[in-house]
Write a structure and sequence with these properties.
Blueprint (H helix, E strand, L loop, with lengths): L7 E5 L4 H12 L3 E6 L2 H13 L5 E6 L5 H14 L5 E4 L18 H28 L6 E5 L14 H23 L5 E7 L6 H4 L4 H10 L5 H13 L8 E4 L7
Parallel strand pairs: 1-2, 1-4, 2-3, 4-5, 5-6, 6-7
């Protein structure tokens, strides 16, 4: 990770869970990290914690609703003007809304579908496109794009209510391979990695509608990873030599049923 010291990373969904763990790990590795989040107060609190630890890097908070195209563009401009061009992008932010593909039990599932597509797919692609264009404009040929996918994007998992969400994560897998081929054809050495974790113990489920009791019961009944496990996987991919691309990295807790 030494070669990334002093360089700039953007981590989306950096207010908690995987995003916060990745942001923290990159700051401790000496990077200038911009944490995109709606709950920017949490990112600021993490930044203060890292400053107290005398981390070699620095965390900057940027409040943004990634599903809002105008806010997203302003956040990218703010990042370039504040810390410089982005060398590493970690697309972590995502949302799962339980819904039926058949519309069973709900009058109109379309708003939920649209919300998931806007955040899980469109925001990811816009951020990726803008970052790659900026890297190439600055002649940065060793940049890295990391998507935080999901185990449900690598196979069909029997989880009723989550199939629309799983569809967005399968799309991320396709977009990862598509970008790899486009960068190859452009002669670019920019790398792309899709990290697909199984169950991870975070407050993500509560943020997506489950009660604290339901979330705790889920984790009690199922093996789970820690956010730091996913952050370690991201660092592994970033830390490989420039000629090595970790294209797809699937990590699961031992004993997971999927």
């Amino acid at each position: 990770m030494e070669r990334w010291a002093g360089r700039v990373a953007v981590v989306t969904g950096a207010s908690s869970g995987i995003g916060a763990a990745v942001a923290k790990a990159l700051v401790l590795s000496g990077m200038q990290v911009v944490g995109f989040a709606r709950r920017d107060d949490r990112v600021k609190a993490l930044a203060e914690e890292l400053e107290a630890l005398k981390a070699s890097g620095k965390l900057h908070a940027c409040k943004v609703d990634l599903s809002n195209h105008d806010e997203l563009q302003k956040a990218l401009i703010w990042t370039r003007e504040t810390v410089g061009g982005v060398d590493v992008l970690v697309n972590n932010a995502a949302i799962l809304l339980s819904t039926s593909l058949a519309g069973e039990g709900e009058d109109d599932p379309f708003p939920k579908w649209r919300t998931m597509v806007d955040l899980n797919l469109i925001a990811v692609q816009v951020l990726t496109k803008e970052t790659v264009k900026d890297m190439r404009r600055r002649n940065v040929d060793d940049g890295h794009i990391v998507h935080i996918g999901s185990i449900v994007g690598t196979r069909i998992v029997d989880m009723p209510g989550s199939y629309a969400y799983a569809g967005t994560k399968h799309a991320i897998s396709v977009m990862t391979e598509g970008l790899r081929r486009e960068l190859r054809d452009l002669g670019s050495k920019i790398r792309i990695t899709n990290v697909s974790p199984g169950f991870v113990k975070t407050d993500w489920w509560m943020a997506n509608g489950l009660s604290k009791e339901e979330s705790e019961k889920m984790y009690a009944e199922n093996p789970s990873l820690e956010p730091e496990d996913v952050a370690n996987a991201v660092q592994y991919a970033l830390g490989c030599p420039p000629h090595v691309q970790i294209h797809q990295l699937t990590i699961q807790p031992v004993g997971e049923h999927f």
